[in-house]
Write a structure and sequence with these properties.
Radius of gyration: 19 Å
Number of domains: 2
Helix content: 25-40%
Structural class: alpha+beta
CATH class of the largest domain: Alpha Beta
Strand content: 15-25%
Shape: elongated
CATH architecture of the largest domain: Alpha-Beta Complex
Order of helices and strands: HEEHHEEEEEEHEEHHH
CATH topology of the largest domain: endopeptidase fold (from Nostoc punctiforme)
Length: about 260
């Protein structure tokens, strides 16, 4: 394990990375947490086959890899994680690497296509947005994110298909991208309350929806339309109206299955 290798990897990406929460697993397209995960792997703190996680995954590594420290004890190679554990995904969290002397190395969307940067810590860790910021020292041992740790929190069974529900589906179906986004959906009345959807006119579809459609035995075009919603409702024996409502009976059943660590379909 080498803090120097971890930091060197991070610095090698300065000016080379475009920020993206959708395409976050490449070497030139990352978000804040995938950048930190890749740096940890480069430093040997995580095994090479570790799945790229998010801020919630980092919180789950406390005790096995991370030891919380106060800000006054921070030194080069320590990590910061901003956000509330259990609710830090997406724009509700941020993470990066401390360099000491009040500087951090992190991936942020504020710098166009050159998103890995060194900035001041204060005002850039998420604190400027009012997020709580915690600081962690790496333990001197190699770790691996356990499959059980990928379910960071029990979902609230509220019938709302948001980012947390999508991310848990991406985890349990072992998809490569686990960003909580249902990409490239075509907005219709039946899916307008798919809160995790990224609506556009490309009709490229979502990897997650494709996976669910394959399990349901229907056309796998990646688009969550009436046929897909109807098939999900029939499978989970809820009211069949081919529509996701603002507080959906179907989504509640999905969330209940996920909280039992079961695949809904």
């Amino acid at each position: 394990m080498s803090l120097a290798n971890m930091i060197d990897y991070g610095k090698s990406k300065i000016g080379q990375v475009t920020y993206s929460m959708t395409n976050r697993n490449g070497e030139f397209s990352m978000d804040c947490s995938s950048f930190v995960f890749k740096a940890l792997i480069a430093g040997g703190f995580l095994t090479k086959d570790t799945a790229i996680g998010n801020t919630e995954s980092l919180f789950a590594l406390q005790a096995s890899l991370l030891q919380e420290i106060s800000y006054r004890k921070v030194q080069a190679g320590d990590l910061f994680i901003a956000g509330i554990k259990g609710a830090s995904s997406g724009s509700a969290g941020h993470t990066g690497i401390h360099l000491g002397q009040g500087k951090i190395l992190h991936c942020t969307y504020y710098f166009g296509s050159q998103n890995v940067v060194i900035t001041s810590a204060h005002g850039w860790m998420g604190d400027a947005s009012g997020l709580p910021v915690r600081h962690f020292r790496l333990l001197k041992k190699q770790s691996k994110l356990k499959e059980a740790d990928r379910q960071m929190t029990i979902l609230q069974v509220d019938g709302q298909w948001g980012f947390a529900t999508s991310r848990r589906l991406q985890e349990i179906y072992q998809l490569r991208i686990r960003d909580g986004i249902i990409s490239h959906q075509y907005r219709q009345q039946c899916n307008q309350y798919l809160y995790a959807a990224q609506f556009d006119h490309t009709q490229k579809g979502s990897q997650l929806i494709c996976a669910l459609q394959q399990k349901l035995g229907i056309t796998a075009d990646g688009l969550c339309g009436r046929q897909t919603i109807r098939a999900m409702q029939k499978k989970l024996k809820t009211t069949v109206d081919a529509t996701i409502s603002p507080q959906s009976e179907l989504v509640k059943k999905i969330q209940q299955k996920l909280n039992q660590n079961q695949r809904p379909f």
